């Protein structure tokens, strides 16, 4: 443990640091897991032949977070997900959590076990961990993946491509509009691989010389079209999360090949307390 690590006094384990808007993101994760319990219950044993339902995070963090500029410590998305599923009496049969930092991986595992979760933890680059996770899953199961990287560079399209090989998988993907807005020139410059990793082949379709806002819109449209080619449809409604000064922070993009899952997400969007519209 590094000397600079922040600790939760409640359990003595490391915490990450997040902005206050993280709770808005977690509210969507929680609500989706609540609604999806209707489908999840049909995959849970007993009987023993049922294939199970898994939860996947490739950038999990330690499971608890300090809200920046406050003294509040909140549950991270793995604990939010676990508690939401338990509260609806449809707990995930497995929770696969990966974080490059071994202290984070160890902490989230301990915290989930303490509340009765069933974590399987990894500490590898996401692109390597996803292969191990997919290989360990029951291909007949129902899976939910939350991709929540810190920046656009970490969101390799190969992660989406590999997860899309699962027959029944829903994905909620955090795409950092703030990172793209701040670094559009750098990321779109010749020689940069960031956008090629995020949206392979984008230069053949998207003009990088256009103004920032239409460039972002064209890039996102291309990215979602490429996901559709994988047989998984991005939901029409993309949630934009803004910061305390009304600055755009990130998009939440829901992806699924199943109509029922799309209906669940649309129900969340229609809730006037939750709804945001995409704004490039």
Polypeptide structure, described:
The protein is α/β, with parallel strands linked by helices and 280 residues long. 38% of the residues lie in helices and 21% in strands. It has helices spanning 22-40, 77-87, 102-114, 126-136, 157-163, 177-188, 194-198, 212-228, 259-270, and strands at 6-8, 13-18, 53-57, 64-67, 73-75, 94-98, 119-122, 142-147, 169-175, 233-234, 239-242, 248-256. Strands 3, 6, 7, 8, 9, 10, 11 and 12 form an eight-stranded mixed sheet that branches. A four-stranded mixed sheet has the order 1-2-4-5. The longest helix has 19 residues, at 22-40. The protein is globular, with a radius of gyration of 18 Å. The termini are far apart. Residues 272-280 have low confidence and may be disordered. It comes from Bradyrhizobium ontarionense. This is Three-Cys-motif partner protein TcmP. InterPro entries: Tcm_partner.
User: What proportion of the residues is helical, as a percent range?
Assistant: 25-40%
**Total strand count, please?**
12
Give me the CATH architecture, please: 3-Layer(aba) Sandwich
CATH class: Alpha Beta
Q: Describe the biggest sheet? A: 8 strands, mixed
Number of domains: 1
Strand content: 15-25%
CATH fold description: Rossmann fold
Distance between the terminal alpha carbons, to the nearest Å? 39 Å
Return Rg in Å: 18 Å
- Overall SS class: alpha/beta
Overall mean pLDDT: 92
Task: Point out poorly predicted stretches.
Answer: 272-280
Using the alpha-carbon principal axes, give the shape. globular
CATH superfamily: Vaccinia Virus protein VP39
- Compressed to H and E, one letter per element, the order equals EEHEEEHEHEHEHEHHHEEEH
> How many helices?
9
């Amino acid at each position: 443990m590094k000397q600079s690590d922040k600790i939760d006094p409640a359990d003595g384990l490391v915490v990450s640091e997040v902005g206050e808007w993280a709770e808005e993101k977690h509210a969507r994760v929680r609500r989706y897991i609540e609604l999806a319990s209707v489908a999840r219950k049909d995959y849970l044993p007993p009987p023993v032949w049922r294939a199970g339902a898994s939860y996947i995070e490739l950038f999990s963090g330690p499971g608890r977070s300090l809200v920046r500029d406050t003294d509040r410590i909140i549950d991270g998305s793995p604990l939010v997900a676990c508690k939401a599923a338990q509260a609806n009496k449809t707990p995930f049969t497995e929770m696969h959590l990966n974080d490059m930092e071994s202290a984070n991986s160890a902490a989230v595992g301990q915290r989930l076990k303490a509340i009765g979760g069933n974590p399987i933890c990894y500490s590898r680059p996401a692109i390597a961990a996803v292969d191990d996770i997919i290989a360990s899953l029951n291909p007949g199961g129902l899976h939910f993946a939350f991709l929540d990287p810190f920046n656009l560079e970490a969101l390799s399209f190969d992660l989406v491509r590999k997860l899309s090989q699962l027959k029944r998988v829903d994905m909620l993907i955090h795409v950092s509009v703030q990172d793209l807005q701040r670094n559009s020139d750098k990321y779109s410059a010749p020689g940069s691989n960031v956008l090629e990793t995020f949206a392979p082949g984008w230069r053949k379709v998207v003009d990088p010389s256009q103004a920032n806002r239409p460039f972002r819109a064209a890039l996102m449209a291309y990215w979602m079209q490429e996901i559709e080619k994988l047989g998984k449809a991005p939901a029409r409604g993309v949630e934009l999360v803004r910061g305390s000064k009304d600055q755009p922070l990130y998009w939440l993009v829901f992806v699924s090949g199943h109509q029922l899952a799309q209906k669940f997400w649309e129900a969340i969007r229609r809730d006037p307390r939750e709804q945001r519209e995409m704004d490039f």
